[in-house]
Amino acid sequence: MKRFLQAFLAVLLAWPAALHAEPSPGVSRYAQTMLDWVAASDAEAIDYPQADRLALYAIAAAPALVDAADARLEHAGMALLRGWYGRCCGPAAPSYWHIDNGWREADLRDGLRQALAEDRLEAFLRAHHPGHPDYRALALAYRTETDLGRRHQLALNLARWRWMPRPLGSRSILVNIAARELTMRDGGRIADRRRVIVGKPTTRTPVFAAEVGGVVLNPWWDIPASIAREGIAALVRNDPAAARARGYIRVGSRYRQMPGDGNALGRMKLVMPNRFSVYLHDTSNRSLFEQDERLLSHGCVRVAGALEFAAMILATDGWNGASVPAIIEDGATRTIDLAQPFPIYVAYFTVAPGADGALVYHPDVYGRD
Fold first, then answer.
1. Which burial class, exposed, middle or buried, applies to 332 when counting CB atoms under 10 A from its CB (0-12, 13-18, 19+)?
2. Tens digit of each residue's pLDDT (9 = 90 or more) over 27-38
3. Residues 82-141: pLDDT tens digits?
4. What is the CA angle 300-303-306, rounded to 5?
5. Which residue numbers are catalytic?
C-alpha cells in the first residue's frame, strides 16, 4: 500500500510538467487529449470531477497498461461530454429553458467508443465542444475577470451556451431576449443584426427553438384568447362597426384581425410553428424600436425593419426579395415557403458580444441570473 501511495504521489507531482509535454508513445495520448480539454474546461466555469481528473493522470502515466477499449477512458470521455452538455459540473438547465441541445447519452457513448477505436478522439471531442464564437468570447473573459459578480454572471451565461445545440446550423437566427436583439448567421458569419421588442416581465417571451419554414406577407392575426379578453372581444360584441374599422372580426369562436397597416403583426411574420404560438413579426407601431428597454409585447418578438429582414431571408433562399414591396402593395395574404428551412433560437443571455465584438453586460430583465 505504501509503495502504491508513493507511486501515485510521484504521478501527481510530475503531472504539471507533463501536461504541456509531448504525449508519451502509445494509447496514453488519448488521456493526454482528454486532460488538455479538462484543463481548458477550468476556464469555462466547468467543475470537472476531481476523481476523474486523477484517474486520467494515472492512465497517462502508465500507457503500457491501457488500450483503446479501457473503460476508464470511456468514463473520462463521458464526464467531459456531460460537462459540455450541461449534464453535470455546473448549473442544470431550468424549467423555462425549452431548447434541446441534442444530449443523447447512448448515442454519444457509442460515438466516443468508435472515436477511440478509430483513433479520432480529438476530432470527436472538438465536434461536441460548445465552440460557438460567443461561447469562446465569454470563456476568454471568464479566464481574466477578477470581479466576483461578473465572474458569476459569465459562468451562468457559459452554462446557457452549454444548453444550446451544436452546431446551431450553417444558417440560423438567434434572438437574445435580454439584449432585445437578434443576430442571423450565415456560413459562420453574422449576416444581420437588429433590434427586437420582446415580452414584458409579466408576459415573458419563452426560451425555445423552432424552424423557420417560410414568410407570410400581409398576415392575418389570430388573436389569442387571453389578449382578446383584454378588450377586443368586448369591442367586437358591443360595436362591430368600430371593431371592423380597426380590422377586428369574429370568425366562429375566434377573433381575428384583417391584414393592413393597423394589423398588430404589421406586414410580415415568419412561419415558425411552436407550442407557444410565439412568432417573429413586424408591428404597426415601428417608433417603439427607438426605445432602449423594448419590453413591451405579450410574448411575441417584433422585429425592426421587418420587411427588409423578410426580403433578406427570401433572397438567401434564392427567392427574389426585391418583389416584397409589390406583394405588400397588393394587400393579399401570401405565404412563401423556404426551399431550405433553418433553425431559430429564442434564448436568454445577459452577457453577449455587441456589434463591435466587445462583451456587453445586459440587465437581467427577467430575473434569471
1. exposed
2. 467 888 999 999
3. 999 999 999 999 999 999 999 999 999 999 999 999 989 999 999 999 989 999 999 999
4. 130
5. 281, 300
Return the H-helix or E-strand segment holding 148: helix 148-162
Residue 275: burial class (beta carbons within 10 Å; 0-12, 13-18, 19+): exposed
Residues 6+ apart with CB under 8 A from 219: 259, 263, 265, 267, 268, 269, 281, 333
**Which of the pair, 22 or 340, is modelled with greater confidence?**
340
Question: How far apart, in whole angstroms, are the C-alpha atoms of residue 369 and residue 365?
Answer: 9
Query: Letter for the amino acid at 21?
Result: A
Q: Contact at 8 Å (CB) between 299 and 278?
A: yes
Position 63 scores a pLDDT of 67
Of 102, 107, 39, 51, the closest CA to residue 75 belongs to: 51
Residue for grid cell 464564437:
133
Helix (H, G, I), strand (E, B) or coil at 25: coil
Task: Kindly give, in sequence order, each residue whose CB lies less than 8 Å from that of residue 208, ignoring residues fewer than 6 positions away.
Answer: 98, 99, 274, 275, 276, 278, 346
> How far apart, in Å, are the Cα atoms of 51 and each of 35, 177, 232?
13, 38, 61
Q: For 205-234, how does the pLDDT look when each residue is reduced to its tens digit (9 = 90+)?
A: 999 999 999 999 999 999 888 899 989 999
pTM comes to 0.88
- 81: cell is 461530454
Mapping DSSP to helix (H, G, I), strand (E, B) and coil, where does residue 142 land?
helix
